[in-house]
Design brief:
This protein has 110 residues and is an alpha/beta fold. The chain is built from three helices and four strands; from the N terminus they run ββαβαβα. It has a four-stranded parallel beta sheet. Helix 1 runs parallel beside helix 2 and helix 2 runs parallel beside helix 3.
């Protein structure tokens, strides 16, 4: 399910997942840290997140927490965001976080 805001001058599609391959045309990263590093370049137009990342203590939700901090402390514009996790409980929590991020950015930017 797609949620988010569209922005110009961004062309990178970012896929965070430790098991499933990225769709054609998407940059595949395996850790939340790598996703955050890539997001910090301000070049990501779309972001698709898995929650459970294997044996790593990071999750896709950690990426959303980073985005939430960035939008409240800077003019960071988040990409269009998706949650593709098969974990139903965490997917629902991620979609709720995405919705709140969108609402916060809309209020912030008027």
């Amino acid at each position: 399910k797609q949620r988010g805001l569209k922005h110009k001058n961004k062309n990178l599609k970012l896929w965070l997942d430790d098991e499933r391959p990225a769709p054609f045309g998407w940059l595949h990263v395996l850790t939340a840290s790598d996703a955050i590093t890539t997001l910090a370049t301000h070049r990501v137009s779309e972001l698709s997140l898995d929650h459970d990342l294997g044996l790593i203590d990071e999750t896709g939700y950690d990426v959303l927490l980073w985005i939430k901090r960035k939008i409240t402390t800077s003019d960071f514009k988040p990409p269009v965001m998706y949650a593709h996790s098969v974990n139903p409980v965490e997917r629902k929590r991620m979609l709720s976080a995405i919705k709140k991020i969108i609402e916060t950015v809309r209020k912030r930017d008027g």
